[in-house]
Amino acid sequence: MRIYELMFIADPRVDEEGRAALVEKVQKVIVEKAAGTIEKVDRWGIRKLAYKLPKTKLTEGDYTVVLFRSNGEKLQEIDVLFQVTPELIRKQIVRREDLEKKERKEWLKTRDNPVEEMSVSDGSSSGMKEETIEPVFEVEGESQA
């Protein structure tokens, strides 16, 4: 599944509970209609807009950023929500290829090195020295020195 970031601006004239309900509504559409999974929701709060919106004359907006995973086939369902909900004034959906590449690199690294050495910290706060633990095998009839 691909990683997407949705940033949207809600009308600040709506009360806080109403804006929170809008965020929940957007999350619900992502999960149910766009077949996505929410990774992170970051509410930025009310901030000044870059320019005054011509239709509504707004100079501020309530910003929210949602990081989610989806296959990308049903992203238009999110567009429909923004078209029919006037309290949601702006939106932008961006595919986060940088996060996908980073995740893939980590996956390939763990795939190439499936068995890593187990290490235990000695508990010191400076330098965090690590010691390698080697497995001990006992063979019947032999004792280890």
Class of the domain at 2-101, according to the CATH hierarchy?
Answer: Alpha Beta
CATH topology of the domain at 2-101: Alpha-Beta Plaits
- C-alpha-based Rg, rounded: 25 Å
Average pLDDT rating: 84
Would you count the extended β strands for me? Answer: 6
Unreliably modeled segments: none
- Along the chain, the helix and strand elements come as EHEEHEHEE
CATH superfamily caption of the domain at 2-101? Ribosomal protein S6/Translation elongation factor EF1B
| CATH architecture label of the domain at 2-101 | 2-Layer Sandwich
Any idea what the shape is? elongated
Q: Can you list the strand order of the major beta sheet?
A: 2-3-1-4
Number of helices: 3
Range of strand content: 25-35%
Characterize the main sheet: 4 strands, antiparallel
Alpha-beta classification: alpha+beta
Specify the helix fraction band. Answer: 25-40%
Distance between the termini: 53 Å
Helices, strands, pairings?
Blueprint lengths: L1 E9 L5 H17 L4 E12 L11 E11 L5 H9 L3 E8 L1 H16 L6 E3 L8 E3 L13
Antiparallel strand pairs: 1-3, 1-4, 2-3, 5-6
Folded structure, characterized:
This protein is 29% helix and 32% strand. The strands form two sheets. The protein has a four-stranded antiparallel beta sheet with strand order 2-3-1-4, sandwiched between helices. It has a domain at 2-101: 2-Layer Sandwich (Alpha-Beta Plaits). The protein has helices spanning 16-32, 76-84, 97-112; strands at residues 2-10, 37-48, 60-70, 88-95, 119-121, 130-132. The chain has 145 residues and is an alpha+beta fold. A hairpin with an 8-residue loop joins strand 5 and strand 6. The relative contact order is 0.20.
